[in-house]
């Protein structure tokens, strides 16, 4: 497995044992929307060189929908889900075929991994994805990961591969995450304006207070802007993964630890457990449980379990074992956890002590609404 992060400077990036590289649609396609074979070849050359140097490499690649646009005669990214799925189903095969050919030039085997958000929301599937990718790295393959746009829905999807890449970096205990986009770094203003300056280093989220992140994509083939990239960097650094944000043209320099792009320093504190990061970033609440002020304090300050006595309202339709949002009475989401009851069961339990519930309804009702081991404060 990867080591525990590469530290506070870029210099150790070149020695990283395991890296995740994410490339966006706009970095892989022509202005007309088709696959740019030269760009894919250049990227494969860079990653193959790192693989030859002994670094395990995982590529998270967008571009399936963009690659499928030209065969469908589309000049703009489709807005409706069905056409996006059709384009993805055509484009994913074209994209992987090109990667397979380019990595084969270096005697490397490309392996396709298609994930949906639901795959990382369900713990058994999360673990299965982790095992599969780890085994691919062990046998020397290059896993190529993408969101499974053909079956993803608007309601449950990553929406952009930046967040997927950050979660994969955590999943695999990577040392470094490199986010490749169509601008060379994060700027303190519009990158096209001469008054804007490159932000070369971010030590904590507070460093970006007041920075207008805006949007970086001008070509209409991707889905993400700088906001999602910064959020993904936060997820990764929170998990101890050093992160570099730069352009695809700077990929080699970034992996060599040179002063390109923006370097996000990994947190020095203990990495959150897989369960905590999974709950915080790979799940979506299937409903909400509203807490009284005392329960909010118990959950957020004392890190206690949520008991029936502190619940004042239930929203949505969920089943035992589902992730749910824990909200304060003003609507603020304060935590997320795996609930122990169906939504229909909780109203009868609200405001009651576990002792009363056990006496009146039976011992099976003495359990918590959400146990503290299945809960993360947001």
Automatic annotation (TrEMBL):
Pfam families: AA_kinase, PUA
Keyword Nucleus: no
Domain PUA: 287-370
Domain of life of the organism encoding this protein: Bacteria
Cellular component annotations (GO), alphabetically ordered: cytosol
Pathway per the UniProt entry: Amino-acid biosynthesis; L-proline biosynthesis; L-glutamate 5-semialdehyde from L-glutamate: step 1/2
GO biological process: L-proline biosynthetic process
Binding site for substrate: 62, 149, 161
EC number: 2.7.2.11
Binding site for ATP: 22, 181-182, 223-229
Family annotation (SUPFAM superfamilies): Carbamate kinase-like (SSF53633), PUA domain-like (SSF88697)
Enzymatic reactions: L-glutamate + ATP = L-glutamyl 5-phosphate + ADP
Record InterPro entries: AceGlu_kinase-like_sf (IPR036393), Asp/Glu/Uridylate_kinase (IPR001048), G5K_ProB (IPR041739), Glu/AcGlu_kinase (IPR001057), Glu_5kinase (IPR011529), Glu_5kinase/COase_Synthase (IPR005715), PUA (IPR002478), PUA-like_sf (IPR015947)
Family the UniProt entry places it in: Belongs to the glutamate 5-kinase family.
Biological role stated in the UniProt entry: Catalyzes the transfer of a phosphate group to glutamate to form L-glutamate 5-phosphate.
Protein name per its UniProtKB record: Glutamate 5-kinase
Species lineage: Bacteria, Bacillati, Actinomycetota, Actinomycetes, Streptosporangiales
